[in-house]
Amino acid sequence: MRNDKRNLTDVFDLFQRLDGSRIQTSEEWMEYREEWKQLLEEEIYGSFPKNPDKAKGIVRNSRLLYDGRMILEDIDLVFGRDEQIHIPAEILRPIQKGQYPVIIWNRHEKGDICPAEEELVCERGMILASFCRCDLAADTPGETLLDRAYAGYGWGRIAQWAFGMRKLLDYVEEQPYCNRDWIVSAGHSRGGKAALCAAIYDDRFTMCHANGSGCLGVGSLRILGGHFGPGFGSCETVTNIEKSFAYWWGKGLSQYVGDKERQIPVDGHLLRALIAPRPIITTEGCGDDWSNPYGTQIMWRAAQEVYDFLGVKEKNAIHYREGGHKFQKLDWEALADFIEMQFMKKQRRTNVVWFEGEEEKRCCFDWKWERPFYQWRRPGIQG
Asked: Cα separation of 65 and 71, whole Å?
């Protein structure tokens, strides 16, 4: 990332409450986290059910893949107040008995597959659980299955797709192959936004992975730029996303379009920090300018103030690769590395960047030049 300090815009203080007072302890941060979540619901996601019924699953078909090293199960996922929602889901798991990390991800369509599924499941011993989000809520305006089953809410598609991930988790966490301490919400692009939403509102997800989530994901809404720095490339904005995909969001977002964009009281570093103290990794393409790779980097570094404050310095990670807006094999491998680093204390294979030890200089880059973007620091730190 190029050192370019033009067009600086302040990144708001994650330790300042809406009433102007400042958080001073980790206990206060975790308590105020609920206020931030409520703000996101009001301004971005829309309202949604807080204590929904539990989903159940029925195995419809099971078969072996990859020379008998993997089991593929076709699941009928059932939920709703009268069990009126039935959507198909897939479970890919190792043939050996045991408890494994589970990655729950939302696919756009049935043709979407994990390009590293053989490595993740057969070699690394992980489980992939997925559903096609459009089976639950079509990526078009109009009433959805969830609108009919849970009437009276103002949620958009992002919150609805996140809800589907939580329903799949209802089923998976009860299975003997699931390690409940190692459950990841994952997704790409709009699916990455949904994965963030799912993990923010459901602590059963013990890790989050968002790939190319961009605007109203972990990208900045105020600092825009491609991999050459701020002001380079064309990045998606709040106005763009609300104009094209208003049905993704609650009605609160519409007030922040045009010249009111900078007034939105949230940004990508907040969404990222709300996962803390659980681990998060985001993966980005250097050529994916629309997803704002430069602003995403600043948001990652700003959220680190919260991770440091909570004493979990090493749980906030990012990974960049060459290429554009896709969910590539290298993105999945970076996720698998981070799962092994966090849950199994293994060394990484890919160039995942995170903060370890006591000194920032041990990281791969010098981040001091980014300080002008946000002059605030976590409580107890000067300068």
From this structure: 6
41 with 67, same domain?
A: no
Please write the tens of the pLDDT for every residue from 25-71.
Answer: 999 999 999 999 999 999 999 999 988 899 999 999 999 999 999 99
Residue ending a domain, among 157, 189, 205, is 205
Candidates 191, 223, 226, 234; CA nearest to 302 is 223
Bridge partner list, 130: 90, 105
Q: DSSP class of residue 44?
A: I
Report the largest interatomic distance among the alpha carbons of the chain, rounded to a whole angstrom.
61
Dihedral sign, CA of 140, 144, 146, 152? positive
**Same-domain status, 214 and 197:** no
Rounded CA-CA distance 167/302 in Å is: 32
Tally of structural domains, the chain: 2
- For residue 223, the enclosing domain spans 1-45+206-383
**Unique residue bearing structure tokens 């308590």:** 31
pLDDT tens for each residue of 252-309? 999 999 999 989 999 999 999 999 999 999 999 999 999 999 999 999 999 999 999 9
Element (H, E) at 337: helix 329-344
State the amino acid at position 190 in one-letter form: R
Copy the structure tokens of residue 314: 């090493």
